[in-house]
Amino acid sequence: MSRNPSTFYRYRAFNAITLDSLCHDTMYFANPGTFNDPLDCSPTLDCDSELGDLRDLYTILFRRRVLSEVHEALKRAGVRGERASTHADRQAQLMVENELANIAYNATNPEHSGTKMEVEAWILTYSIEAELRRYYDRGVCCFSESYASPVLWSHYGDQHRGLCIGYGIDRIPKPQLKKVIYGRSRSIKTSALVRTFIHSDCEAQNEHDRDVLLRKAGEWRYEHEWRLIGPQGLQESPLLLKEVTFGLRCATSVKHSVVKSLIGRGRTIRFYEVYVVPGQYVLRRTQLDLDELSVFLPHTAVSGIEIFGPDAGADDVPQPTEQAQ
């Protein structure tokens, strides 16, 4: 069994957002709907359940969402307590009944092929799939096992002009990163959802979470990706910032800015810069010479007159000849 990495890497372009996250030690957990791969965290359902189970499953998912939305609306209106809960329950129940009635009615449309029960099961499966995507409103923060991937530097490190931040897991509590699983089907059996949401099967819940949040197409295998799952939005980092590696094309001023921003942090942070192995498509890194960096920056521009004075070199200026006059 392979050991988990000791360091997890996050490729970033250098900009105000990246610098702010480094200074404040924060991470952004993105909505999977914004990922560059539209198939990521977007499973499809394979129906293998009875019609009654599908109705119960849709009721649970739909009711949970409506309750949350109604409670939020009542909270904004200043309505709280038992009155709010009673109203939310009544509203959710009414909406569930209306939705199930509409689905059953639409299943009688003669334009559909198949029996009424088959069509209703198909509509319910489609509706459950939509509710499932709404249910998984978790945020995802992505990392790689490697700091030396030329492709990742190109895609996520601003074409090698950015940086790669290395994080450790030596924190209390210890953060739980999950390894992405590549390939295989992105479909989920409805029977697995029935075990998860109706029968409260913990093992089924874990498998379901994995299949929704941790599966990607095999073509993405080169990323060697790991993920942190949490609430969407900007959060304090649960990981330990250990190191920063600067890309091949990273400007010296960027290196200086990042180093100066982090050099006073309590724990020691190591700084590296990437180089190319001669004759190969291989990236390596070496430790950044902070003393050499500080010699040249910050630099103050001065003119020759400011350096040598207004009369410097005046005697050496050639005088015009009579012919030139």
Topology, pairings included?
Blueprint: E1 8-12, H1 16-24, E2 26-29, E3 44-46, H2 51-76, H3 81-106, H4 116-135, E4 139-144, H5 150-156, E5 163-168, E6 178-179, E7 181-182, E8 187-189, H6 190-198, H7 202-213, E9 215-216, E10 225-230, E11 233-236, E12 240-246, H8 252-262, E13 270-276, E14 283-287, H9 290-296, H10 304-308
Parallel strand pairs: 3-8, 7-9, 12-13
Antiparallel strand pairs: 1-5, 2-11, 4-10, 5-12, 6-10, 13-14
Helix pairs in contact: 2-3, 2-4, 2-6, 6-7
What does this structure look like?
This protein has 325 residues and is of the alpha/beta class. The chain has a domain at 1-32 and 146-185 and 230-311. The chain has ten helices and 14 strands. Strands 1-5-12-13-14 form a five-stranded mixed β-sheet, covered by helices on one side. Strands 4-10-6 form a three-stranded antiparallel β-sheet, with no helix packed on it. A hairpin with a 6-residue loop joins strand 13 (270-276) and strand 14 (283-287). Helix 2 runs parallel beside helix 4 and helix 6 packs across helix 7 (202-213). The radius of gyration is 30 Å and the shape is elongated. It starts with 7 loop residues before the first strand and ends in a 17-residue tail after the last helix.
